[in-house]
User: What shape does this take?
Amino acid sequence: MNPIHRLLTISALALGVAMPLGAFAQVTMDHSEVSLSHQAAMTDGVVKKVDLTNGKVTIKHGEILHMDMPGMTMVFAVKDKNLLSTLEPGDEVKFLVANEGGKLVVTDIQPAR
Assistant: This one.
């Protein structure tokens, strides 16, 4: 075995001991679970659009801490279409969103006070 081949073999073995195989695993996050660092809480928002027929509401919202989501404008499905019956574009609200099977769903929405 030539010196270079020997050096490469020893280096590979040393690397295998120093860095277990787990160090090469890809880290992924499962966003289907609520972060343990933040409990679900009401989020401030402004209603931009109400789609009563399809049970959806567009809300410009602040940071949703328990979802680790920055503020943005997005369309949410609602758990119960009756939640939308009194909403109009421009209404300031507080709402609660949950991840149900990978889909973000508004489970409660109330006028902001």
User: Anything to note?
Assistant: Strands lie at 43-51, 56-61, 72-78, 92-100, 103-111. The domain at 43-111 is CATH 2.40.50.320 (OB fold (Dihydrolipoamide Acetyltransferase, E2P)).
